[in-house]
Amino acid sequence: MTDRRPSIPIAPAGVLTLVLLAGCGQPAALDAPATEVAGPFPRPAGAHEVRLDPTHMVPMRDGVRLATDLYFPAGADTPLPVVQIRTPYGKLSERREGSAARYFASHGFAVAVQDMRGRFQSEGEYFVSRADREDGYDMVSWLAGQPWSNDRIGTYGCSYLGENQMQLAATRNPHHAAALPQAAGGSYRYFGVIFGGVTELAASLGWFRGAGTKVFYRIPPGTPREVMLQVEEMINPAPTPGELDFQSAWRTLPYIDMLKASGAPPTDFEAFVSHEPGDPWWDRIGYVQPDDRFDVPALHVNSWYDLGVSETLKLFNLLSDNAESDRARDNQFAIISPTDHCTSERATSATVVGERNVGDARLDYWTIYLDWFNHWLRDDADADFDMPRLQYYLMGANEWRTAGSWPVEGTEFQPLYLHSGGNANTRAGDGRLSWEAPDEEQPADAFTYDPDDPVPTIGGPVCCTGTADAPAGGFDQSAVEDRNDVLVYTSEPLDEGLEVTGPIELVLYVSSDARDTDFVGKLVDVHPDGRAINVQEGILRARYREGYGRKVWMEPGEVYELRIDLQATANYFGAGHRIRLEVTSSSFPRWERNLNSGGRNYDEIEWTLARNSVHHAPGHASRLIVPIVSRETGN
User: Fold this and answer.
1) Nearest to 292, CA basis, from 322, 320, 317
2) Is 3 known to be catalytic?
């Protein structure tokens, strides 16, 4: 078959786009904004000079020692409240001016920054996330036992640094007094590697290649601290992969060999992509499970254009629902911004995510973070934390909203039904969305899915791809909607604005001549000028339509119900806008291509075409279930 490579658009010049290079939690600006804008809220200045006490080797329960930097506020009275930051990205990065560690220390906190097990200067063997429950627990206990500590330990950090906080929270260490996890949705079962039974390909390649190495040039175990201090900054501890043609790398088959073919050092990539969802193997890593119990107040932070935002909101509910005490149950808070991965604090007065301008999305995060830790970690803070339980940014209206729960109060889940005359292919087709259910037979819409010519990913809630070839955010989807293998269903222009805030579900009735294939849904906001801006999306591998616990195959001529999780959003569709749904069978390179064989996919090199159909008729009423918040909007 001919190798047809989809072109993955890059963000145009003149807009501010943030992309994750190498490791999550380390964003870099690609382009300066085209116009003068007010920058992020500045961090409040602390009253203390900061003293660094570097590289203490803290023993864990099995004797393995983890390298830990301690930051102290000069001249502050002890005992001190403590903030713990455990990182896989190297504790030396927190020594720079302007780091979070120095910020909290300047405000009177002791701060401990630790290299995780097997990473950089720490001893032991590294396997992604596997030791983080026990090591996090042991570190909190060690900090609580220090003479300069007041026994109250808070935790802080974004992405992997947030995920290990959630794993720690499930251990219920009595000294873990407060958590501040940012972009920690990956801690909910699958590290963000799997969604809908499908591998997050671009994120997995980017993160494991850039930050997932198991190989470090390290000082020998047992080396005295005084020797480590002499040589630690002379050693480059991690091998650096060379340049990579990501467009070619994404197309590697079998894709389990993708990292090896790219020349990356050994990682856990192969283990993560070769274990299916529902495999008991995942339980041994220690990610958060639905039956875990918790006993810590937490402030959850994430963004609408970040992978895992829906999981963050599930954690917000789970830590309350499964709380051991009223203190934990009543003190779960969440802030959801409109930005991409780990960039909430960088929002400006004209925040642009991808090519979507979402307005003034600033919030005084650093003051909020300081207030959070002051409240929970200091001895004289007994009153309730004075902040709305949920603050979320309503895109489109471009303003902050507050609520007391998720889904927010006043939410009604209403179905938008798919209709057509059998020709919904492309945006020029006859696909419609209507609040009215089909009351007569309608021909199904069909398309051919070719794994060699997948629908390209253009923006969306992605992270950690390691390249500007796959940026996050909102982009015009018109080029995607011109493809014949994309079904497009569009509402009439709205007479009045509509707030869509909450979890989104797509119910499809489908058939296929393949034994197994994927179905992708994408929610799109069509502006009056015709721009079709992606809002949120999801995917489901058909074999998992009855859950991850079993695989069920498709038979030609049979119609099956699929319930596809389209994650969550808060988007205001203004008057004159139209709601659009795209349905297809791929979004590449965000998700791996289903080769349609019904095999394991990750170790296959042959593919077949799939003729896929979407049905919308009485008894097979495919529908998009949207969460509508009925209240006044500011726009």
Assistant:
1) 322
2) no
